[in-house]
Amino acid sequence: MPANKGFLRRDRICEQIRRELAEIIRTELRDPRVGMISLTEVHISADYAHAKVYFSSLAGSEHLDAVLLGLQKASGFLRSELGKRISIHSTPQLHFIFDESLERGEKMSKLISEAAAISDQTDPPEQA
């Protein structure tokens, strides 16, 4: 029987943790440092003891330290609420990590647009 058929149990749990944490942060977390964040991905350890929660923030990189501190301070509350909403044998410790991929993608897109604009300005004349 194939071991990798469809989603693995761990993948489903990671997605459920991501959805539930996003809902808890949106509706119940009252820390003003956190503000508007988006949870992009969750990776859980093989023993389900630790979860790396990747997030992006609309606050920008200048407020990143405050957002991260707010999430770390709230991790006990978030873990407790998560434990009430999902049923696995132990609720994982939450470790928050800033996801730079969105900002990196935006910078790459801007560079490509700039290069295309420069290329359009320096196109050789059309040959007859």
UniProtKB/TrEMBL annotation:
Q: Which organism is it from?
A: Candidatus Accumulibacter appositus
Family classification? Belongs to the RbfA family.
Q: What are the protein's GO molecular function terms?
A: ribosomal small subunit binding
The protein depicted here goes by the name Ribosome-binding factor A
Keyword DNA repair: yes or no?
A: no
Question: Which Gene3D superfamilies does the record associate with it?
Answer: 3.30.300.20
Function comment: One of several proteins that assist in the late maturation steps of the functional core of the 30S ribosomal subunit. Associates with free 30S ribosomal subunits (but not with 30S subunits that are part of 70S ribosomes or polysomes). Required for efficient processing of 16S rRNA. May interact with the 5'-terminal helix region of 16S rRNA.
Read off the InterPro entries from this record. Answer: KH_dom-like_a/b (IPR015946), RbfA (IPR000238), RbfA_dom_sf (IPR023799)
Disulfide bond is among the record's keywords? no
Which terms are listed as keywords in the entry? Answer: Cytoplasm, Ribosome biogenesis
Record's subunit section? Monomer. Binds 30S ribosomal subunits, but not 50S ribosomal subunits or 70S ribosomes.
Tell me a GO biological process for this protein.
maturation of SSU-rRNA
Where is this protein localized, as stated in its record?
Cytoplasm
The gene name reads rbfA
GO terms for cellular component = cytosol
Cross-referenced Pfam families, in alphabetical order? Answer: RBFA
| UniProt superkingdom | Bacteria
